[in-house]
Each structure stands twice: as C-alpha cells, then as structure tokens.
Design brief:
- The structure is a homotrimer.
- Chain A is mainly alpha-helical.
- Chain A has one domain.
- Helices cover about 75% and strands about 0% of the residues of chain A.
- In chain A, helix 2 runs antiparallel to helix 4, helix 5 runs antiparallel to helix 8 and helix 6 packs antiparallel against helix 7.
- Chains A and C meet through helix 2 and helix 4 of A and helix 2, helix 6 and helix 7 of C.
Chain lengths: ~200, ~200, ~200
C-alpha cells in the first residue's frame, strides 16, 4: 500500500509540476501546486474520515522529495513543457495517479469502517480531488466537471472492482492490481477514443 | 433532527441538480454537484468542530438516494431546466435548504459545546456553504457574496431565534420550527421585494 | 503566543475588510471575507494536524471583535478604500499578518509533534492560506501563485529562522520576534524593490 501511495504521489506531483510550469509559475508556485495535486486527494479523504496523522505529515520524506523535483523542474526551460510528448506523459501520469489513489483511497476508507458504497465514493474522492485543486489553481476547468472523456467514472469502476474482489475472497494484492489496471486502461482508452457518458 | 436534516439534504440536492443540468453537465457532474451542495455545509461544520463520523458517511443511504435522483435528472431533457417554474422551484428549495440546515447546524454546534454566538455562526456556515460550493463549481458568483437580496442574514436571524428561544425555555421542536420559518420567509420575501442590506 | 495570534488576526482581518469593501460588498460580505482571511490559515493548519478545538471557536471574542470592525468598515464611504494610503496600509498589514501567522503556525505545528520541515511548511500554510481564501473570493489571483514579489518565500525563511533558532537554544520570545521581523522585512523590501525568484 505504501509503495502504491508513493507511486501515486510521484505521478500526480509530475502532473502538477507540468501544469504549473506551463502557466509560467516560479519555484514556489510549482512546489505548491505539485504538493496540492499529490497530497490533496489523500488529505481530503483523511479529513472526512478523521484519520490522523495525515500521510504526508507522518512521512515527511514526501515533501522533501517533491521539493527536489520542483527545483529540477523550475530549472528546465519553459519550452520543454510545450512539447507534445510532455502532454502525452501528462495524460498517462494523470491516469496512473487516478488509478493508484482511487484504489488506495477505497482500501483505507474500508479499513476505517466505512461501508462498501461510501468506500467506493471515498476512493473516487481520493483519486480526483488532487486534480481538482491543480486545475482550479491553474485556472482550468477541472476534468471531472467537464462533459468530457470518462474520468471519475474510471475511478468509480476501479474502486468497485477492488472492493468487490475483496468481498468475493480475492487477495488484496491481486484485487488492487486489477482495480488499478481497470481505472488506468479505461481512462486512457476513453481519452484516445473520446468516449463520453451517454447522458 | 434527522428528519429536518433529510429534508435539507433533499432540498439542496435538487438545487445542485438543477444548476448542474443547466450547465450541461453529465451524470457524474450532476451527481457530484448535488452531493457537494447537499453535504457541503454539514461537512464543513463537522470538520470545524471535530464531530466524527460525518453524517453522510454514517448514513450511507443519503448518497444512494442522491444517485437515484441524479440518474433521473440526467435522463430529463435539458430544456426542462430552462422552464421559469423550475427557476422558482430552485429559489424555494434553496431557501428551504438554508433554513433547515442553519437551524440543524446551530443545534449541533451548541450540543457539541460551542457558545451562543459561535453556534449561530456555525448555523450560518452550515446553511450557506453547500450553496457556495455549488455556485463556485458551476462558475457563478455565490449568492452570499453578492450585494444582493438577504441570504446569510436570514440564516443568521433564524439561528439566533432558535438558540434564543431555547435559552428562554421554549421546547426544541417549536424553537426549531420557528427558526426555520423565520429563515425561509425572510429569504423569500427578500427575493420577491429585492430587499438588500442598507450598507 | 496568544498576543501574536491576536495581532495576526487583526492585521489579516483589516486586509480582508479593505479588499471586500473595494469590491463593493455589503456588511455580511465584508464580515465573511474578514473572518475567512483572519481565521483561514489557522483553521487549515489545525484541521491538518487534528488540533481541536479551533482557536476562533475556543475564543469567541475574536468573531465578535471582527463583527464590530466590519460594521464600522461598512459605514465608511467606499471612496476611502480607493485612497493610495489605504493600499500601502494593506501591503504592510498583509506582510505583518504573514509574519505573525507563519511563526505562530510553525510553533504550534512543532508543539503538536510535527518534525522540523513539516512545521516550517505548516507555518507557510498558516501564513498564506487566509490570503488565498480572501483573494479567491474577491476574484483576484492569489499573491502566492503569481510570478511576483516574494511572498511564501518570506514565510518559509521566517519559519525556518524561528525553528532553527529554537534548535540552537535561543529562547522562544527572541526566536519568534526575529522570525517575524525576517518575514515582514523581506516581504516589504521585496514589494518595494520588486524582487522576484530567479526561476
């Protein structure tokens, strides 16, 4: 779980860095946006269920690692971030962060006594909230609220698969990996083929 | 109290649904906005006083009921939401939600040991915060912050009437009903006759 | 600490009042913005570390004092707030609030068991978050996120000086005063000479 969380933190931190640099922010802005993207979803989940201490306060390595990334990113030329490959990387990292955080979030909610459906919802919240903060601060309409490719829906299905699997007796590792795969693949397929909800 | 809370959740959820559908959001967007409107005020109050578990996490029926409403609402044609009667219903439901949540919020704050004036303020916060989230996400300036008809003022007076009544020895049921009536009527009268604060 | 907190509340409350009156808000709007500016940073810090009751809920005098200020401010003519001296006062009060809250925030975080770097960060959060709320509600881009004069950086250095001083054995009073002075002076110098981060 800690490994998945770390990977999710890194994936979302990079999306925050890319977005903030595209907007021409300086080191502090980049650092702030990357932290809010990486820690936002887990923080809101932990506040909602009263789960203290928050994970990034308990593991202060996270904030130091992100400081290192922000310094490197701020030193790279602004043109780099306009590169279309960077845009593609952004989409993949965002999908990855969504899947990693949604499944971790759903698991933690369930371990803290939330019932099935609330746990699924808190998985979605964990997955999408960091991106909402990132986009709001960078003055973009958040992906989740656009009539757009599937986003929250992917996290919803991924969390449901994970928790459903656990209930059917699948072991945690396999259920989690399948939950992550469902979320990430569904998101990437829906971005590629512009799949939207019918209503 | 639970009944009043349920009615408040429904009233605010409908306003969230109407606003989100007017903006052309899809099912997930409508569901998200309706939940934030319905649960936002109570959540911020509970976080501020450290009152766990949050009411909608403890009663997971709420989130399932709202899912049902969101599905029905997303199936209804977009033109329906442009209807002027729907706009009137929006104002009445919003006033009702304001009154129901302000009085419940003030009571809960007082039961958790807040003093008179802080309880009144937390009543106002409970009443207005869901609408602030709804309007911010839907890119409208929140009602509370416009130089406009009375809004927070109504919740302020309603909460004061309730808590003042309790202090004067009125029983909870009557004090609550009068508090709700004061808030709702004052809001509707002020919308109808465009009453504003003098300064 | 309580005195420093009170001064910080007053300084930030005034900046909230000035900003809200400039936007033409009425009494309730001015009151709301002044409370969010003055209590926002401390509230988010206390929520993040799970430190209850929140300081403004425990000391209800604060909210009553701000109500008095908001009434006086709402009675003063709108032209007053366009005065360039008021703008200068705004900058000084904002710098003062930043320094006072950053040092108090870092101390409280450390007393609640956060390690050195997390405490510095929570000092920054306490210092800047009230201003973020104020500017977001008043539809301005928050100072922190603009490529602009130093802002969060000042709070970062001030908090580091305070906590570093404590670790080196300096007494709390002197370390706090130096931390505040570093933050405020750095901010004012950087506003006057338009000093920015190099990247």
């Amino acid at each position: 779980m800690t490994l998945i969380e770390l990977l999710g933190v890194l994936a979302f931190a990079f999306t925050g860095i890319i977005e903030a640099r595209k907007k021409g922010m300086d080191l502090i802005g980049v650092y702030g946006v990357s932290m809010m993207t990486a820690f936002g979803g887990g923080t809101i989940r932990d506040l909602l269920i009263g789960h203290y201490p928050l994970f990034w306060i308990a593991h202060s390595n996270y904030v130091l690692i992100l400081l290192g990334f922000a310094i490197v990113a701020a030193l790279i030329k602004a043109e780099f971030y306009e590169n279309p490959h960077v845009n593609q990387a952004f989409e993949v990292l965002d999908a990855l962060g969504l899947g990693l955080f949604a499944t971790v979030g759903a698991s933690i909610a369930q371990q803290n006594g939330c019932d099935f459906y609330i746990s699924v919802l808190l998985g979605v919240v964990t997955g999408v909230f960091g991106g909402i903060l990132r986009d709001t601060i960078c003055n973009e309409i958040p992906n989740v609220f656009k009539r757009n490719e599937l986003y929250a829906t992917c996290a919803f299905l991924g969390s449901t698969v994970l928790l459903g699997g656990l209930q059917l007796g699948v072991d945690v590792l396999h259920a989690t990996l399948v939950g992550i795969a469902v979320t990430v693949l569904l998101r990437l397929v829906s971005v590629k083929y512009r799949i939207k909800l019918p209503f």
